[in-house]
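Structure request: Phosphoesterase, Streptococcus loxodontisalivarius.
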Amino acid sequence: MANYTLIVMSDSHGDREIVADIKEHYLGKVDAIFHNGDSELPSSDPVWEGIRVVAGNCDFDSGYPDSLITKFPGLTVAQTHGHLYGINFMWDKLDLFAQEADADICLYGHLHRAAAWKNGKTLFVNPGSVLQPRGEITEKLYAKLDVTDDKIAVSFYNRNHQLYPALSQEFSR
Ligand SMILES: [Mn+2]
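Returned structure:
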């Protein structure tokens, strides 16, 4: 039976403290912690121990992978920053990436806008930016996903680890 809690952050753009703080807050208490790119930190930084991290368009360190597929029993998570899939202009390529991975969840970043929606079997989640939010939501956010066999609850938190209730959503699997 699937029962996972995932933490997802993105686009911290040089703010190492928030990456370390979120990790400290959750490591060992959740099933995985993800960073969707544009950290602007060296890939050798020890802060990455225990975090699944990909390259963003502002990461010039070649030590980061462009994408990662993380598999748990009964759950596949595909992860990429998004710029390589043209998400400023269309969703087709990111959707194909998710389909090819047979992903239950596709994590991305790049747009600095918190979002969660479902297309086909895949739940797409952008945790927003923990440093530079864009658009109507000005709160700096990260995301928590609570996964069970039949649903995924998505909630967003601010830098003080307080729930940002307006964006909480539940999706059936
Ligand atoms: Mn960015």
